[in-house]
């Protein structure tokens, strides 16, 4: 399992290094900062209770491959929130929480005007570092971190707010193949991109 984790990290580093070398070859590109909300759909207690959701923030770099297609990489911290629970078998109380560090090469396809509002679809796959913590009043604290492969698909709309600045509003579905049950969560983000 450690070899797979190491291979994913190395592949991501090499991809980002190659991407940076190509990006430095020309002036075309956009730097994007985003902020949003993420919510997992995974049942954490067996009673259809999921984590409460939380804030997400990230950055990305997008480079034009054609007038309608951009490719790039995104990195984000996604706080999936926490959930308080009661275990009647012990009895005990506790809190579970989780967050994800995402590093993902991606592609974006724009539909519509190049100068006005436009819709876009986006997809990517890469490294998801998933951290989990269970703090219980009776048992010792349990924590785990896994570096896994995951993917995202989404869509959004972009609006020009300046000569080289755009605002994007988007929604994304993320899936990560963690040990046991896979992690699924939705992310809603608002981003501002600046032309370089």
Structural commentary:
This protein is 11% helix and 65% strand. The chain is built from 1 helix and 8 strands; from the N terminus they run αββββββββ. The protein starts with a helix and ends with a strand. The chain is mainly beta and 196 residues long. It has a single domain, classed as Porin, CATH 2.40.160.20. It has an 8-stranded antiparallel barrel. The chain has one helix spanning 2-23, and strands spanning 30-40, 54-64, 69-87, 92-112, 118-136, 142-162, 165-176, 183-195.
Quick summary of this structure?
The protein has 196 residues and is mainly beta. It has one helix at residues 2-23, and strands spanning 30-40, 54-64, 69-87, 92-112, 118-136, 142-162, 165-176, 183-195. The chain is elongated and about 60 Å long.
